[in-house]
Amino acid sequence: MAGGFLSLLVVSSTPVAELLLVAAAGACLATARCGGVLTPSACADINRVVYAVFTPALMLASLAGAVTLRDVAAWWFMPVNIGVAFLAGGALGWVAVLVLRPPQQLRGLVVASCSAANFGNLLLVVIPAVCEEDGNPFGLAKTVCTGRGLSYASFSMVLGGAYIWTHTHGVMKRSGESAAGGKSLWEKMKQGMCQMTKELTSPPTTGAVIGLVIGTVPWLRSIFVGSSAPLRAVQDSLKLLGNGTIPCLMLILGGNLTKDEQYVCLQDVVSLDMHDRAGVRKTEVPPAVVAAIICVRYVILPLVGVAIIRAARDMGFLPPDPLYQYTLMMHFEHRNHASAV
């Protein structure tokens, strides 16, 4: 039994170690001692390429090649699971606000930070890394596991983006506007619709939607996917572009974590601008609030996720696919979404 646990520990920890090594390389490249290769401008340029080219290509190729209409119907619990994760996190954040009573302009941020998670990039990174290990815990061949896992991650990213820009963004805007005096109902609705439209038409979401359409429409799938498809070169080219997503993401992550202030990589300009408008950046966050958010996101929510996934499995709501259940569990165990923090 001890040997089996040790083997499972090695399989699960090796992909994380590999990703941390790539992130460490990014952190080193962002420091002056390594020549400052990842300067703020270089990091911003790489981030734009990842956002506009690599990630959409990866999501389109993954969904088009591995998803059918039957699969989408079988994944009906995924949007429910993400909704439950947001609901549970929001409720716990609301309790934290009632107990700790942070400043008014921070209350929406606390609720949003407890409820919103990154359903896209980390899944795109972690799942392929685990699948590439020999003896992965899902009992699937490496290529099958990676393709199916990327499909789950891409679908999660589309659903998570919809929740982020309907629920989370609304919570933060209402909190900031109530502290600043508020706007008219029409202005709030118009601004919210603009933000939602912008998110739903972003390159990653567009790539995922196109991939879903190609994968679920048989005659389109026969044109792009398969060894005899007339336009299979397009699918292969998208896969080639998508392969650049994970290493670039980890390099940017490492650059963002460096302590060399001269070469810090700034990744999410939109969220910083949103925080400026809400007054969040001008207010010091109490340590107790930070500790509460960490406790909710990394201790309580994962336990809630375990209970929900086990109950759904026992009631027969989930397909008998360990990778699918693992993806659902990851919805409760992510770091906060960049738009919230």
UniProtKB/TrEMBL annotation:
<feature type="transmembrane region" description="Helical">
    <location>
        <begin position="6"/>
        <end position="29"/>
    </location>
</feature>
<comment type="function">
    <text>Involved in cellular auxin homeostasis by regulating auxin metabolism. Regulates intracellular auxin accumulation at the endoplasmic reticulum and thus auxin availability for nuclear auxin signaling.</text>
</comment>
<feature type="transmembrane region" description="Helical">
    <location>
        <begin position="75"/>
        <end position="97"/>
    </location>
</feature>
<dbReference type="InterPro" id="IPR004776">
    <property type="entry name" value="Mem_transp_PIN-like"/>
</dbReference>
<dbReference type="GO" id="GO:0005789">
    <property type="term" value="C:endoplasmic reticulum membrane"/>
</dbReference>
<protein>
    <submittedName>
        <fullName>Uncharacterized protein</fullName>
    </submittedName>
</protein>
<feature type="transmembrane region" description="Helical">
    <location>
        <begin position="109"/>
        <end position="130"/>
    </location>
</feature>
<keyword id="KW-0812">Transmembrane</keyword>
<keyword id="KW-0927">Auxin signaling pathway</keyword>
<keyword id="KW-0472">Membrane</keyword>
<keyword id="KW-0813">Transport</keyword>
<comment type="similarity">
    <text>Belongs to the auxin efflux carrier (TC 2.A.69.2) family.</text>
</comment>
<dbReference type="GO" id="GO:0009734">
    <property type="term" value="P:auxin-activated signaling pathway"/>
</dbReference>
<dbReference type="InterPro" id="IPR045033">
    <property type="entry name" value="PILS1/3/4/5/7"/>
</dbReference>
<dbReference type="GO" id="GO:0080162">
    <property type="term" value="P:endoplasmic reticulum to cytosol auxin transport"/>
</dbReference>
<feature type="transmembrane region" description="Helical">
    <location>
        <begin position="49"/>
        <end position="69"/>
    </location>
</feature>
<dbReference type="Pfam" id="PF03547">
    <property type="entry name" value="Mem_trans"/>
</dbReference>
<feature type="transmembrane region" description="Helical">
    <location>
        <begin position="150"/>
        <end position="166"/>
    </location>
</feature>
<feature type="transmembrane region" description="Helical">
    <location>
        <begin position="288"/>
        <end position="312"/>
    </location>
</feature>
<keyword id="KW-1133">Transmembrane helix</keyword>
